[in-house]
């Protein structure tokens, strides 16, 4: 399987039977949005999001320095938007 997926492929990969169900998962933050500037999804990002959602890993475990920085940036952006 390719690492970069179309929306349909990403939905199927997640087990969503419809694109509407996949969009609901995105809206709830269960799975990430498309790679910025594209209409493609990163399979590894989906895996990571599902690992977090299911509790297999925690936010701080197994993150690279970049991932920790990115998570902090995302949290700052959300706080400013609220």
Describe this structure in words.
The protein contains 4 helices and 2 strands, in the order E-H-H-E-H-H. It is mainly alpha-helical. It is globular, with a radius of gyration of 13 Å. Strands 1-2 form a two-stranded antiparallel ribbon. This is DNA-binding protein.
Short description:
The protein is mostly helical. 57% of the residues lie in helices and 5% in strands.
Count the DSSP helices: 4
Structural class by SSE content? mainly alpha
**Which residue ranges are poorly predicted, with pLDDT under 50 across at least 5 consecutive positions?**
none
Strand content: under 5%
- Structure summary, number of beta strands: 2
Average pLDDT confidence is 86
What count of structural domains? 1
Principal-axes geometry comes out as: globular
The span between the termini is: 38 Å
Report strand order across the widest sheet.
1-2
Helix content: 55-70%
**What Rg, in angstroms, do the CA atoms define?**
13 Å
Largest sheet: 2 strands, antiparallel
Helices and strands, in N-to-C order? Answer: EHHEHH
Structural descriptors:
82 residues; two-stranded antiparallel ribbon; mainly alpha; DNA-binding protein; globular
Describe the secondary structure blueprint for this structure.
Layout: E1 4-5, H1 7-14, H2 19-28, E2 41-42, H3 43-54, H4 65-81
Antiparallel strand pairs: 1-2
Protein name: DNA-binding protein
Organism: Bradyrhizobium sp. LLZ17
């Amino acid at each position: 399987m390719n690492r970069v997926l179309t929306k349909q492929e990403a939905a199927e990969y997640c087990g969503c039977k419809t694109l509407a169900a996949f969009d609901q998962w995105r809206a709830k933050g269960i799975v990430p949005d498309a790679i910025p500037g594209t209409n493609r999804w990163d399979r590894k990002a989906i895996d990571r999001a599902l690992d977090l959602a299911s509790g297999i890993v925690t936010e701080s475990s197994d993150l690279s320095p970049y991932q920790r920085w990115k998570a902090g940036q995302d949290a700052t952006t959300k706080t400013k938007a609220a």
